[in-house]
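Please fill in the sequence for the structure shown.

STRUCTURE ENCODING:
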């Protein structure tokens, strides 16, 4: 960052440093620049003509830098738009693939409302937050909410899916997941004691994390 320290000298003869082209009564300016890791600033002397040219160069440089920043921002926005478009196309491809295999995409809210009327072994796809509390695994609407959640049975999931659920975030807190599975009946136990029975659960066959295909 440069700053202007103005020194107006009416006679060039008073200056210890000679300046080429300096005329009598021609003002002289000192422009200093802060230097990192230096005790003193770097300064230059300018005649009025040179100083005006210096200001023009500084403004020109600032305009060029602004245009460069705007171009970089435009490129970033275009890249983000392309990435969003690609992500949307991939999400649609996966959705269509799931549907072609007979899996129905549902919100957790719809599943909780319609579960008791669904046929056993109906194929569903649910997205939400996976939590494990002791041996009880669930997928819910909110990270720390257990009331609006669906019990899961993950023993039949493929190896890669079970490995994903063993990740640190999933075991220590919660993690966003998409699960594919079959509607089933189950009972919930805690420390060997039955908590409830006749619950509608999902027998998980596959788990997807964000960006996981």
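FILLED IN BY: designer on duty
SEQUENCE:
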């Amino acid at each position: 960052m440069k700053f202007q320290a103005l020194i107006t000298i009416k006679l060039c003869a008073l200056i210890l440093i000679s300046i080429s082209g300096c005329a009598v009564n021609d003002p002289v300016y000192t422009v200093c620049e802060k230097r990192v890791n230096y005790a003193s600033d770097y300064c230059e002397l300018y005649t009025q003509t040179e100083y005006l040219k210096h200001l023009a160069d500084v403004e020109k440089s600032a305009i060029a830098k602004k245009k460069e920043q705007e171009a970089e921002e435009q490129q970033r926005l275009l890249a983000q738009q392309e990435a969003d478009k690609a992500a949307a196309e991939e999400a649609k491809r996966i959705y269509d693939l799931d549907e072609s295999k007979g899996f129905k995409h549902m919100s957790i809210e719809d599943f909780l409302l319609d579960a008791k009327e669904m046929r056993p072994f109906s194929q569903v796809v649910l997205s939400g937050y996976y939590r494990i509390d002791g041996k009880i695994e669930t997928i819910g609407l909110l990270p720390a909410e257990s009331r609006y959640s669906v019990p899961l049975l993950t023993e039949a999931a493929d190896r890669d899916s079970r490995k994903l659920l063993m990740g640190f975030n999933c075991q220590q807190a919660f993690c966003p997941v998409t699960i594919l599975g079959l509607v089933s009946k189950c009972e919930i136990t805690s420390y060997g004691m039955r908590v409830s029975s006749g619950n509608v659960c999902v027998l998980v066959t596959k788990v997807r994390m964000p960006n996981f295909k």
